[in-house]
């Protein structure tokens, strides 16, 4: 039997139940994933109809855009599944053959690393797209050296942040749990 006062026990149970306030946010991420899927299909349909007139450089830019959208979708799924399982409740689904191997095994530290790795990849693809647009006369956004400078700075900031997070996780794992 617990030696805690009843009010403290009820308060702690209430705090624990508050995790369900996150459930609508995860549902919102599902809607966001649907939005990304619609944008992906819209982009694919738009450019597929122009395939015979696209240059090889334009085709590469289209492919990079589609990869960018796919990585953003992957990032949403990682946050959706891992966040829900880490902070709300375990997903009670059968262990089917198509269940991702990382489901149920990604802790907060792993979630951070997957998140920053995805952000770095998305940033890198966006930066590559901007580099490829240099010198294009018909580009939707004209080349701006100042903008490119800041894109590189932001990308490097993401990379350095990722490395620092990895170092912090490594140091924490070497010193034991706190």
Automatic annotation (TrEMBL):
Q: Which UniProt keywords apply?
A: Cell membrane, Membrane, Transmembrane, Transmembrane helix
State where it is primarily located.
Answer: membrane
Mind naming one GO cellular-component term on file for this protein? plasma membrane
Transmembrane domains' residue ranges: 20-40, 60-81, 148-171
Location(s) in or outside the cell:
Cell membrane
| Family of the protein in this entry | Belongs to the UPF0114 family.
For this entry, the protein name equals UPF0114 protein HNP73_001082
Organism equals Amaricoccus macauensis
């Amino acid at each position: 039997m617990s030696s805690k006062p009843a009010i403290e026990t009820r308060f702690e149970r209430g705090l624990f139940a508050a995790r369900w306030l996150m459930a609508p946010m995860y549902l919102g991420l599902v809607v966001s994933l649907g939005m990304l899927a619609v944008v992906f299909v819209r982009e694919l349909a738009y450019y597929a109809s122009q395939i015979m007139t696209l240059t090889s450089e334009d085709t590469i830019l289209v492919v990079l855009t589609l990869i960018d959208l796919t990585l953003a979708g992957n990032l949403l799924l990682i946050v959706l599944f891992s966040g829900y399982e880490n902070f709300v409740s375990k997903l009670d689904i059968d262990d089917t053959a198509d269940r991702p191997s990382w489901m149920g095994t990604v802790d907060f530290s792993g979630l951070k690393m997957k998140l920053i790795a995805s952000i770095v990849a998305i940033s890198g693809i966006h930066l590559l797209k901007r580099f490829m647009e240099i010198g294009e006369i018909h580009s939707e956004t004209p080349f701006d050296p100042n903008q490119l400078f800041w894109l590189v700075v932001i990308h490097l900031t993401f990379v350095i942040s990722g490395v620092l997070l990895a170092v912090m996780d490594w140091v924490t794992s070497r010193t034991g749990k706190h």
